[in-house]
Amino acid sequence: MKLKLLSWNVNGIRAAVRNGFVGFLTGQRPDILSLQEIKLDDAKREEAKFDFAAYDEYWFPAKRKGYSGTAVLVKTGLKVLSVRRGLGVDDFDDEGRTLTLEFGKFFLVNAYFPNAQPELVRLHFKERFNSAILNHVKKLEAKKPVVICGDFNVAHQEIDIARPKANENSPGFSYQERVWADKFMASGLVDTFRELYPKKVQYSWWSYRANARANNVGWRIDYFLVSAKLIKHVKKAFILDEIKGSDHAPVGLEIDL
C-alpha cells in the first residue's frame, strides 16, 4: 500500500483556507494530512463550515481560543482503527498539541511541540512535553511502528538553519533543545528527510521579518520521523517550499507498506 503523507503548520486554518488551502488539498491529494496550529475551537469550526471533500476529519483544538491545536485529515476509505487526543497530561492536552491515529500497519502521531519562547522561558514546559511524547511513542512502538510528524520547533543541526552562529542561544536552536533532538533520534526514530538527503539545505519555516522567506533565511523545524524498521519503506521525503499560505512550508513523506 503506497501512502502520501503531508504535514503542515498552517498558522491558522481559517487564514489558510482564505489563502488557497482547498486548492492545495485537491492538488496534492495526500492520503493523510496532519495540521498544526489550527487556532480554531469546535464552535468556530462549525461556524466556518469547512468542506474538505473526500476526507474524514479529526480535530483537537486548544481550550484557549485562537491558539495552538492540531488536526488530521484522512482520505475517506482509509481505515482508522483508533484515535487518541492528547497525552493524558492536562498542561499539554489543554493546548491540543498531540493527535494519535492508529492505522493497520502503523501509528501516526501528529505533534505541535511547544516553542521555548524568548529567554527560553518555556523551556522547562517543552522539556516535559518532549519527555512525555517520547514515552508515548515508545509505548506505541511496542505494538506497531510509528510515524511522528509536525512542527518540532527545533532545528536539529547547523545544516538545518541558515544562520547557526547568530542563533546559538535562540529558542528552537538552543543547546538544550538540540541535545533533546539527539536523544529523540537516538531512541530509534529516523529523520526521513535527513536520512535521504544528508547534505541537502532546505528549510520549512521563515520569520515574517526582514523578508526572510524571499531571502531564504530559514529553519528546518518541521519533520517526519519514523521507527527504524519503517525507513526501508520510505520512498520519498520532501519539503514543498514553493507552497505559500503560512510561515511554514508543508513537509511530506511517501511510504510503501
Write the layout of secondary structure elements.
Elements: E1 2-9, H1 13-18, H2 21-28, E2 32-36, H3 42-48, E3 55-60, E4 70-75, E5 82-85, H4 90-93, E6 98-102, E7 107-112, H5 123-141, E8 146-151, H6 175-186, E9 189-191, H7 192-196, E10 205-206, E11 218-219, E12 222-227, E13 234-239, E14 251-256
Parallel strand pairs: 1-2, 7-8
Antiparallel strand pairs: 1-14, 2-4, 3-4, 5-6, 6-7, 8-12, 9-12, 10-11, 13-14
Structural commentary:
By secondary structure, the chain is of the alpha+beta class. It has one domain: 4-Layer Sandwich (Deoxyribonuclease I, Chain A). The protein has 7 helices and 14 strands. It has a 6-stranded mixed sheet. A hairpin with a 4-residue loop joins strand 6 and strand 7. Helix 5 packs parallel to helix 6. The longest helix has 19 residues. It is globular. The mean pLDDT is 96.
